[in-house]
Amino acid sequence: MSLPTDLAQALAQFAGLPTVLVATDYDGVVAPIVADPAAAFPLPGTVAALESLAGLPGVTVALVSGRDRATLGRLSGAPSSLVTVGSHGAEWAEGFEGALTADLRELRSTVLAGLAAIAERFPGAAVEPKPLGAALHVRNVVDPSAAPLALAEARRGPAALPGVHATDGKAVLELAVLETSKGRALQTLRERTGAAAVLYLGDDVTDEKAFAVLDSPGDVSIKVDPDPAVATAARFRVDGPVDARSVFEELRALRRA
Length: 257
Known about the structure:
HAD-like_sf
């Protein structure tokens, strides 16, 4: 699959740098969006391309996801050569960015209970518990017109509690008791690896924080979404996971050359 000319040129320049960080969201990029979040497995060939990239000199590859690290690892099957950062950038191999105190654990329980009560009133809605909070999924709400109402209830209820941080996504509202940022995660990874440039692909609202920090010469930001009407801070755009895989494969070929 051929990539847009401007993106292909940017990839060629990126591939020629001595040290680079290749990072990506998981859902909607590595794995196609599916009705059941527990069944979101990688597009065939994508993880293999990322693993090959991670084996090349001067390349660090990272998955930066809203999933908790355990679920991310289980669904993706990512090898140990890939860095995995969960909970929207707050959960690392060594633990969370901040301490989850007793008060925060109690607040998380309150958030879970509040979202569960909302989900019960909207058939098809689902609550996904997470280490720092929970996500309310409305993609499968039986009455599609009711999905925005469920999200609105969540924003007025659990999301409005002091100390709760809300993040909107595609047909989902995620609530956390610690502030999270994929952008901050990319900055940390850049510092840790000494990367001359960073490439990041993402499909959701949460990825805009990551795109916003990619302002250094050579950085490559790619929105994975076929709709040009969807606003983004990313410099480039591709349609979906198949194109994302092509980006990784093209970068692998360029880096090997």
